Amino acid sequence: MDIDFVITWVDMDDPKWRADFAKYAGKIDNTNNSLSEARFRDHGFLKYWFRGVEEFAPWVRKIHFVTCGQKPDWLDENNPKINLVNHEDFIPKQFLPCFNSTSIESHMYKIPGLSEHFVYFNDDFFIINKVGKERFFQNGLPCDIAAFRYNSGLSQWEKRIRNNIRLINKHFDKKEVLRVHHDKWYNKMYGKKARLTYLLKFYPKFVTLRTPHNAQPYLKKTFEDVWSAAGEELLKSSAHRFRTTKDLTPELFRTWQICQGNFVPYNTYQDTKMLPLLIKSEQAIEAVRNQSYKLVCLNDNVHIRNYSQVMDELEKAFDSILPSKSSFEI
Asked: What is the pLDDT of residue 304?
């Protein structure tokens, strides 16, 4: 089974990118989550992403590096495992330039040469410990957790997730899904994470699923199925050049995949951690240095205190576990 990685990246210091951004949005606005600097800035940690892949997941077949035509100066584009992908290669031209990651992600199944089995990474998702193929896929199916969570609907992200769930309820019958795939939903591996699933057993509709914010395995066929069933809604969402509360997000494809039963039960929280740097910068630094998990997300925020110091300490932590250049670096 060949497994590919897909990672999206942007260089906000690129003059062309800045000109396009200014044309459609004016300027960076840190009071607007969709236009915030934290949405686009790069900390220089991308080289550690590639080092982590080579050191801890050398089995990957191909890395599809997705940008709007950009490339870090140090990246060796001739490495046989790298496929440089421009947005123009798979996103319809009427939606470009695009600054909305969710729109980009909804089209990524059309990346030329993409394997049927792939794992999607944001550029703040890092592999920091040895991880095998079985962490992402078993018996040809993605490893995932099917469990519900509370959604207040207050944040922009929660509002967008509710858009997904409305579409899921349109196409799937909760009672039937949980009956057919009972053992995948009520799996002891989930532990306390499944508490709400049991409490809502008799509620007729799907609610928000738990969504570990980290590397996500997908079947390409899932995207084909969703686009076939909900193409009109996805095209409307794709027209949003910047994030809006009306977006559909990649969690739609993940939830659809789970509702189809195309997954193997796996409590992803046991080796995966999302660390918001705004409130958990020290924990993030220690997690990287001690390799406490297999996968971490270092979530950015414009209000991080002592930002430069935090980034310096994170770089030292990465360098302590991945000090040597990878074959992806010139």
From this structure: 83
